[in-house]
Amino acid sequence: MNSRYFTEEHELFRQSLKDFLQKEVVPHIEKWEKTGHIERFIWKKFGDMGFFGIAYPEAYGGMDLDLFYTVILLEELQKVNSGGFAAAIWAHAYLAMTHVNKEGNHDIKQNYLTPSITGDKIGCLCITEPFGGSDVAGMRTTAVKKGDTYVINGSKT
Prior knowledge:
Blueprint: H1 8-35, H2 41-49, H3 67-78, H4 83-103, H5 106-117, E1 142-146, E2 149-153
């Protein structure tokens, strides 16, 4: 192998993913693009193959693999010629699940991260602000705990 970054194991993963996408995804792309709806079965199949668990801890059903597996996943998703499908998978695996993994306590991870890795739950990120769009790192809204409640200050678009 003449790659500075990708090992033989990476390339085996790439081929397995390519084969999976050709068999399980490509035959449905036209329908999904036309209807604007990705059928539920594919999420579970992605989970069964371990593709949602690439970057997540083994303790929650992930594989805790290096960043290059994620690079391969994102590269190959782009090759199926469906921006909608690729964006949906990416949003689930790297927008929603990343925040649950980073900020969630053990119970939250058990209830949401684990079933997201298996494809039994689908995550999303639903947030926007006037000055930051959907950049959660640039949020200006604050939530301060006062007693048993939170005081929220900010604005919504």
